[in-house]
């Protein structure tokens, strides 16, 4: 079956092209030119269909998990790091893991994590106050907030208080190296073959970084968890994994638990840190929106004896939530997801994607498509006002993907983002840093040289 699309492109180094600010601008031009999709040949080795319109990605994302496969070209490089986890598994194995893990993200479980988000924010803000008082008021949001999300996840996953926000982290350095090495490997065709890659200096560095991450999460913190088991009161993620059983009474093996813990730490740490950082950046560029969010938070917390955001408060921050969503549209932490299908897939216009084709579903492309979002490069939270959202495609906004294989941790991420953003705006005013920001799309969306913002400490509102 022939898939008829706008044009066929030839490109030898796609990942180097798209891994820069200029690469994202090239995607903008592609979307404006072809509107919904096009086919690509990646040298003589791979071909893929790139889609960037909600009407085209909807049938693909909503397809049954039984015919949806995570392709090895984009996801296979993560396997030595994350194992056969829910992110990388397929078919019945994926379905079983999804059933086992879903209870770990129930509202009743997430409610227990809100105190952790508050406490990690308090630690970060106390550090910021010290730095500002000492004349260090311009900080890299990525490095600061990465430590916060790591701190929160270690507590939520292992009930472990790492104090990582105050001390340097070998784990963070290893995560960054793994992310950079994955991007580098994607851009080198010869490195796609394991037999070659593991003999290269980059492959040996990847293995060393994997050893650090696995040792850090499993040996050290699993041990700490068991030592503190009788002392802690909150059920953590590892507890839930160890207790989960399927319909036949079978649970996860030790290797399964390790893979899911690694995946939870990876997926919940970098992505959420990117999301929070870009929200603060966008509000630093739009002081009127920042002031409105701050007023909303101050009104919510007035007459309180503490500044803690509570679970029931999350739905009482509508404008702040709109600002977060608009930032997730404009600066999505994950720029694309890829899929293969074991059946031919029908998309609009009578077109058919042959089974086995790699489909790159461009979240960035959809979120910046002028056919879907007028003035797509403008930060405008009012797009997410309920009145303005009427009639919009359900797949016009998909920062957490969609369908059966959507992000299982999206409610966790949104809860943490709202808590951290709300408390940050209550305590600090953020303005632009000294350097022009250039986006850096890697495993998650960052900025070249970091994302520098200027901080001004605010006094608590007068009651």
TrEMBL record:
Q: What is its main location?
A: endoplasmic reticulum
- A Pfam family annotated for this chain is p450
Q: What catalytic reaction does the record list?
A: androst-4-ene-3,17-dione + 3 reduced [NADPH--hemoprotein reductase] + 3 O2 = estrone + formate + 3 oxidized [NADPH--hemoprotein reductase] + 4 H2O + 4 H(+); testosterone + 3 reduced [NADPH--hemoprotein reductase] + 3 O2 = 17beta-estradiol + formate + 3 oxidized [NADPH--hemoprotein reductase] + 4 H2O + 4 H(+)
* InterPro entries cross-referenced by the UniProt entry: Cyt_P450, Cyt_P450_CS, Cyt_P450_E_grp-I, Cyt_P450_sf, Cytochrome_P450_Monoox
| Any one GO molecular-function label of the UniProt entry | iron ion binding
Q: Which PROSITE patterns match?
A: CYTOCHROME_P450
Q: Where in the cell is it found?
A: Endoplasmic reticulum membrane
Q: Name one GO cellular component term.
A: endoplasmic reticulum membrane
> Which residues of the sequence carry a binding annotation for heme?
407
Respond yes or no to whether keyword Methyltransferase is given for this record.
no
Name the keywords, alphabetized.
Endoplasmic reticulum, Heme, Iron, Membrane, Metal-binding, Monooxygenase, Oxidoreductase
Q: Does the keyword Metal-binding apply?
A: yes
Return the EC number: 1.14.14.14
Cofactor requirements of the protein: heme
Q: Where is the signal peptide?
A: none
Q: Member of which family?
A: Belongs to the cytochrome P450 family.
Described function: Catalyzes the formation of aromatic C18 estrogens from C19 androgens.
Q: What protein does this entry describe?
A: aromatase
Organism, scientific name:
Esox lucius (Northern pike)
């Amino acid at each position: 079956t022939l898939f008829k699309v706008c044009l066929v492109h030839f490109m030898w180094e796609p990942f180097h092209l798209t891994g820069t600010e200029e690469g994202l601008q090239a995607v903008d031009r592609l979307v404006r030119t072809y509107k919904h999709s096009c086919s690509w040949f990646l040298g003589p080795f791979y071909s893929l269909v790139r889609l960037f319109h909600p009407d085209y990605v909807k049938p693909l994302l909503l397809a049954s998990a039984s015919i949806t496969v995570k392709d090895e070209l984009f996801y296979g490089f993560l396997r030595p790091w994350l194992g056969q986890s829910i992110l990388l598994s397929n078919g019945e194995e994926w379905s079983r893991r999804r059933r086992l893990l879903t209870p770990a993200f129930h509202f009743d479980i997430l409610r227990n994590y809100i105190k952790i988000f508050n406490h990690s924010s308090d630690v970060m803000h106390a550090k910021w106050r010290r730095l500002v008082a000492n004349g260090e008021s311009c900080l890299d949001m990525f490095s600061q907030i990465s430590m916060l999300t790591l701190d929160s996840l270690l507590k939520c996953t292992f009930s472990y208080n790492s104090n990582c926000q105050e001390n340097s982290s070998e784990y963070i350095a290893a995560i960054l190296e793994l992310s950079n090495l994955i991007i580098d490997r994607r851009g080198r065709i010869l490195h796609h073959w394991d037999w070659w890659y593991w003999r290269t200096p980059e492959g040996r560095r990847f293995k060393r970084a994997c050893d650090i991450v696995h040792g850090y999460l499993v040996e050290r913190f699993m041990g700490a968890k068991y030592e503190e088991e009788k002392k802690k009161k909150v059920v953590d993620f590892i507890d839930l994994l160890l207790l989960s059983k399927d319909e036949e009474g079978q649970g996860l093996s030790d290797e399964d638990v390790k893979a899911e813990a690694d995946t939870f730490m990876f997926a919940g740490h970098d992505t959420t840190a990117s999301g929070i950082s870009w929200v603060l950046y966008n509000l630093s560029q739009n002081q009127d929106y920042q002031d409105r969010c701050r007023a909303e938070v101050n009104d919510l917390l007035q007459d309180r004896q503490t500044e803690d955001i509570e679970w029931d408060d999350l739905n009482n921050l509508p404008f702040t939530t709109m600002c977060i969503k608009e930032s997730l549209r404009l600066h999505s932490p994950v720029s694309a997801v890829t899929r293969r299908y074991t059946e031919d897939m029908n998309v609009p216009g009578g077109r058919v994607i042959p089974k086995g084709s790699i489909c790159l579903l461009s979240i960035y492309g959809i979120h910046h498509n002028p056919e879907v979002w007028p003035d797509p490069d403008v930060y405008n939270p009012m797009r997410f006002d309920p009145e303005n959202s009427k009639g919009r495609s359900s797949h016009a906004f998909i920062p957490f993907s969609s369908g059966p294989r959507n992000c299982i941790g999206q409610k966790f991420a949104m809860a943490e983002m709202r808590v951290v953003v709300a408390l940050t705006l209550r305590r600090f005013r953020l303005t632009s840093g000294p350097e022009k920001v250039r986006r850096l799309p890697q495993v998650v969306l960052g900025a070249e040289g970091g994302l520098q913002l200027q901080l001004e400490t605010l006094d608590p509102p007068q009651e």
